Amino acid sequence: MLEYIIWNPNPDAVSFGSFAIKWYGLSWTASIFGTFLMAYWFCKQEGKDAEKMTDLIIYVFIGALIGARLVHALVYQPEYYFANPLEILKPWKGGLASHGGIVGAFVALWFFKKQNPAFSYLWIMDRTAIASIIAGIFIRLGNLMNSELIGKVTDVSWAFIFIQVDESPRHPSVLYEAVFYTLVFVAMVLLYLRLRNNLPGIYLSIFLIVIFTARLLIEFTKVPDGEGFLGLSSTQTLHIPLILSGFVLLYFSLTGKLKKYG
């Protein structure tokens, strides 16, 4: 009989009576702090005003939260939220869609650039693309601690039995994502140390292509969240336009057509 990994962590990292600090909350805190440090490092590397990064993180956090919540409500549970629109204002009671978070972050970055013309929009998006991978790593680890976004039943030797869900061995899909994001982050930092700003748009294009292609493939190991197009799930369908836009951006970056915007 195969020995699977029994997974049953307490969602509370620390508790004091009725008060508890959740692992998921800590993952978001680590995401924000890690992203800020990375953005600060980019500014120090390139002689930018690093003090503006505090404002940048606030813009991105608010924009990503609004975008992620709206897309979750409109794509995954439209009937419920149309009937209960005020529930959209309660993200702690529902989900967040990363696709909407990206769109919301792009909009927020545009507002930041309008207030800070010393930073070009493409420069900001390129660096944010790298830094945001840190957030993806920590958030997926938070999902793992919450035993959520579980994978399909499997018999692979590294399967997890999520006790809080059932007793079936399943793919630890969010762990796959966290490990892959870590590898991509390291590769992107090494690429940045070599290229710096010589190919504006390159980091954002790689982020869109690599991250969302990987997510599309890893989704095959997850329990589907609804039907999309061509036999794909709803989430996989949302990955496709981001991947395609990444290839378009990569073409313009490699041909030097974005240099004047970087």
Characterization of this structure:
The chain is mainly α and 262 residues long. It has one domain (22-261). The protein is built from eight helices and five strands; from the N terminus they run E-E-E-H-H-H-H-H-E-E-H-H-H. It has helices spanning 23-46, 53-76, 78-83, 98-115, 121-145, 173-195, 202-218, 234-254, and strands at 5-7, 12-16, 19-22, 160-162, 169-170. The strands form two sheets. A three-stranded mixed beta sheet has the order 1-4-5, with no helix packed on it. The chain is globular. The model has no long low-confidence stretch (mean pLDDT 89).
Through-space gap between termini:
57 Å
Radius of gyration: 19 Å
Largest β-sheet summary: 3 strands, mixed
Neighbour order of strands in the largest sheet: 1-4-5
Q: Please report the number of helical segments.
A: 8
Shape field:
globular
Broad structural category = mainly alpha
Count structural domains.
1
Q: How large a portion of the residues is in β-strands, by DSSP E?
A: 5-15%
Helix content: 55-70%
Oligomer: single chain
Along the chain, the helix and strand elements come as EEEHHHHHEEHHH
